[in-house]
Structure formats: C-alpha cells, structure tokens
Specification:
With about 575 residues, this protein is α/β, with parallel strands linked by helices. It has 21 helices and 14 strands. The strands form 4 sheets. A 5-stranded parallel β-sheet has the order 2-3-6-1-7, sandwiched between helices.
C-alpha cells in the first residue's frame, strides 16, 4: 500500500495562555483524584505528567497511559485540536472516576454483606460444634420449630392466641434444647395447640328424647330432670341462651354424680368430671405459672382439653369439700369460673390466654349446703335432692343395680332371680341410707354366693326370696321399730326425721329429789336440746293449767333419748 502523507503540526501555538494553563492544571487535578481510586501509580508516570506543560501532549500521554477503554482512546486520537482534546480527556477521566467510585461503593456493600454472612456462618458453625459436644441434634430442633409453625398456621386460633404462640416458638428457637425452660415452653405450646379453640359440639335440642334418656338412666330425681328439660326447651326457643350453673345438694348415694353423665348424653355433649374433694390450693383451679418447674394448667382448662370441645358438661364433684390454706382459697378461684359475666375470658395462670367458658354447662354437687361459701352459692342455682323412698329404691334396684351386678359377676336373669320381696327385705333390714349405695353393696354378695352355688353345685339357676335372704347376707342388721299400743310410765314415743328418712325415738323421763336441775342424756344435737328444755319450761310455767300439781317445785328431772341421733329433729 502506498500513500501520500501530508504532515500536520498538532502543537499548540501558545501553550502559555491562561486557558492552556487552566486545562493542564485541571488534567493534573483530575489525574490526582483518579489515582486515589486506583492502585498507586508509578513514580515515572507521576513525574512525566508533572513535567508536561503542553495541553495536547499531556492529553495524549494521559489517554495512552491511563484510559483503559479503546473507544475512549479512539475518540481522543480523532480529535486534532489540542484544547478540545484536553477538555475531552478531562471529561473522560471524570467519568472513569465516577465509575470507580460507584464500583467501590458497591464493593463495600457487597463486602459488608459477605462479612455479615461469614460472621453468621462462623457463629452457626461454632454453635453446631457446641451442640455436637453436648449431644444435641440441630436438625431435630429445626424440624420441631418448623412443625410448631406449621401447626400454628393450620390451627383455627384466635388472633391473640396465634400471636402469643408465634412469640413462644421464636423464644423456643433461641433456647438451649436441654434447658428446663425449653421443656416448659414445649409443654405450653403442646397444650395450647391441643386446646379445642372454637370447637363446639352441636346440642341435641329434643325434649322428648332427653326425657327418655334421663328416665332410662335414673329413677326419681324428678326436680333435676324437670330443670334440665326446661333448659332444653328454652334453648330451642332462644339458641343464644347461656348455659346455667346448677348445684345438686343431697345425701350420698342419691345419684348426684351419675346424673351429670346422663345430662351430657341427653344434650349430646362431651362429659368431664372434676373432683374437688380435698382441693386446697388455688393453683389446682387456675393452674401454675410457667416460671415453676413442672408447671401445669388448672383442672378447668385440663377438663376442656380432655373433652375436646369448648361446650362440654363439666361436673364439679364435692364442691362443699373445698378447703383453704396458705396457698390460697380455691373456692374464691371458682368465683370467676362460675360467674356467667366473667367466665367469657377466664385466664389460667399457665395458659395466660383468655379461655371462653360461657358455653360450658357446669353442674356442681354437694352433700351439705352449709359448707359452700355464700358468694359461691349465690352464683349457682341450688337444687336439693330428697331421699329415695322405699318404692324408688325398689325400682332403682330392679332397673339398674341388679342388672349391673349380674353383668359384673357373669350372671344373667335366668341364672339368678332376685324376687321383689327379697329386694324389699334388703332395703328394710340390711340398709339404712338416703341413697342406694349400700343397697348395691348388699346385692353384690348375693350375686357372689349365687355364682358359687351355680359353679360349685352345678345348679342352672338360683332364686332369692325374702325367706332365704339371710342365707346370703346373714341375720338382719337393722331390727324393726316396736310401737307399743299403751304408753308405759315415764316412756313416750317420738317421731323424728333424719337424712335417711323417718325414725322412731323413745323418750324416757324420771323425777327425783334434788336441786331442780334438768339433765338430758343421749346423742342429742343443739336443736333437740333446745326443744327438750323449752318443753320442760313450758310445763313448769303452765303447771296449773295442765293439771300438773307441784311441777314448779320439781326437784330434779332427767330425760333420756337412748336411741337418738345427733342429726335427728324431734316432732
């Protein structure tokens, strides 16, 4: 290739002009700023830039030595005017400086992030090594946290409950696996997730069906049955009716405890029994706080968890047997449970979350109304159970007790026949009670001895009559009361009623010389003593009207009640 080349003088005519000096100074300053953002330049490069004073030559030198982009170098090469070439180099170096600054900022951020990640990784590796030394399994713990979070997300929890459990899971993730606190936290999470939040069983609103079930399960108890049927009827008319709180008061063995299960079956609800006899610690009702080792919820929340629904029938058995000591008064803790206005947000000390008890049907039982604290009794509807009559006991024995004992002893109605007169014999002369508990105890040995005869003697059936009851139960334990047709001197008959029914009392009196003192003997209660003294005072004050001569000066009088009971009331 041949060409004709014409040389062009690219040197600046006046390199000492003000503009030329300004451009040289600007290029040097720009180079200094640029060099601070790059690795330290060589001394030769710095010396050469300081020695050049021609803007065009300095621009060419910087473009060839500093600029890295070939496109930028081409732009400088194509510019013939030295002044414009110097300005272009300044602009290109400023742009390169901006690019370097941006890269450095990005690099710093990335480095900081990498440092944080490396720090986390380093700490996690240390934690993993420590756990390996302690024999802990991190994978199992991580799976546990994931499982808790999944259960919380899937459960139908109130917002307040969900927020609380999420916080507990986060705390658990930061707590050492083998610590005592983590065990309490796991128990807490397990319980809260097991509670039936929002789960309710549908009531069977059928008065006829409920009456049939109650009659099948219990003979008598008419007032209790009537009250339950009234509740079901009103519930049908007003579905928003809140559950009532009933308290059944009566002697032992009258069916107070068993009626709770029948009510639950009639309403088609879950049934839970809570025994309160001997409870003396408030924590048994409200639960223990989580700060204690082996903390657990109270009996009410435990009953809800056991039932699996928020509207079970909860029987509070033996509520009159509550006691109090230095640990608190459980009866006072029950005030919130049995108050329809407060139990919508009952707070157990362990759960620390509001639990709605307003849909629960509470039925309390007691033997003595006097032992129930007054504030607690005011929150309940008291229903007193009367003692069973002779005929009611007979019906209960035929329909419930005998079939139950036959099944328990492997017998049937064909193998053992207990006649009606035999049952009455047992009721009259082998038991004396308000309920039927002892009656069932007396039927049990009859079944045992009958089973022995059937197995030992090869009999196909055994019949028990009134005449041979003594062969099974021995001689009569209770002798019949004797009523004399004529009163003896100093002896009269009195009638009394007790918790087991009516009773006949003989009252014996004797007068003797003395100081006029009145002495009463026998097992007498305060009411009996007051009644006897009042009667004697009346006779003495009205002796003339009654024709009892000299009674005002009667020296000494003794009245004896040889067969009296302290709980009897004389009539």
């Amino acid at each position: 290739i041949t060409a004709d080349v014409i040389g062009k003088d690219l040197r600046l005519a006046d390199k000492n002009s003000v503009k030329a000096e300004a451009l040289v100074a600007e290029m040097r300053n720009t180079f200094d700023s640029f060099s601070k953002l790059t690795p330290k330049p060589s001394n030769e490069l710095v010396t050469a830039i300081k020695s050049l004073s021609d803007p065009g030559l300095l621009a060419d030198f910087i473009a060839g030595s500093v600029l890295m982009n070939y496109v930028d170098k081409q732009m400088v090469l194509e510019e013939f005017d030295p002044m414009r070439r110097a300005e272009l180099v300044c602009l290109l170096m400023e742009r390169e400086s901006d690019i370097l600054r941006t890269e450095m900022n990005i690099h710093k951020k990335v480095r900081a992030q990498l440092d944080a990640n490396q720090r986390d990784y380093y700490l996690k590796e240390q934690l993993r090594a420590i756990r390996d030394e302690l024999g802990e399994n991190e994978e199992e713990e991580d799976e546990e946290i994931v499982e808790y979070n999944s259960k919380i997300a899937a459960a139908n929890l109130p917002d307040e409950v969900r927020e609380k459990l999420v916080k507990e899971v986060k705390k658990l993730a930061k707590t050492p696996y083998t610590s005592a606190e983590s065990s309490v936290m796991r128990n807490y999470l397990d319980l809260c997730l097991e509670l039936p939040w929002g789960v309710k069983s549908k009531d069977r609103i059928d008065v006829a069906a409920a009456k049939k079930i109650l009659d099948e399960d219990h003979d008598g108890l008419d007032r209790v049955k009537e009250r339950i049927l009234e509740f079901i009827a009103v519930k049908q008319l007003n579905p928003e009716l809140k559950n009532q709180i009933l308290c059944l008061v009566g002697p032992p063995g009258t069916g107070k405890t068993s009626i709770g299960a029948s009510v639950a079956r009639a309403l088609k609800r879950k049934y839970v029994r809570v025994s309160l006899g001997g409870v003396r610690d408030e924590a048994d009702i409200r639960g223990h706080r989580k700060t204690y080792i082996a903390a657990m919820p109270g009996r009410i929340v435990t009953a809800i968890n056991q039932a699996g629904t928020m509207n079970p029938v909860i029987l509070l058995d033996e509520i009159d047997k509550l006691t109090r000591d230095a640990h608190g008064d459980p009866a006072s803790a029950l005030l919130e449970v049995l108050d329809a206005e407060q139990n919508k947000a009952f707070r157990d000390h362990f759960v620390e979350l509001p639990v709605d008890l307003s849909d629960c049907l509470f039925i309390a039982t007691a033997n003595d109304m006097e032992n129930i604290p007054r504030p607690l009794a005011d929150r309940m509807e008291i229903i007193e159970l009367k003692i069973y009559t002779r005929h009611e006991k007979l019906a209960i024995a035929k329909d419930h007790l005998i079939p139950k004992q036959l099944k328990r002893h492997g017998l049937n109605k064909r193998m053992l026949r207990i006649k009606e007169d035999a049952v009455l014999e047992i009721i009259d002369f082998y038991t004396r009670e308000a309920g039927v508990r002892n009656l069932e105890r007396e039927i049990a040995p009859v079944c045992r001895k009958a089973a022995k005869k059937i197995v030992g003697q090869g009999l196909k059936s055994v019949t028990v009559k009134a005449e041979n009851v003594k062969d099974y139960l021995g001689v009569r334990k209770i002798l019949p009361d004797k009523i004399y047709s004529d009163n003896e001197v100093g002896v009269v008959n009195g009638l009394a009623y007790t918790e087991v029914g009516g009773d006949l009392l003989r009252v014996e009196a004797a007068a003797m010389p003395g100081s006029g003192k009145v002495e009463l003997t026998g097992s007498l209660g305060d009411v009996m003593k007051e009644s006897a003294k009042a009667a004697i005072t009346y006779i003495r004050s009205h002796s003339e009207e009654l024709g009892v001569a000299g009674s005002r000066s009667l020296p000494h009088l003794q009245a004896s009640f040889p067969e009296s009971r302290s709980d009897a009331i004389l009539q």
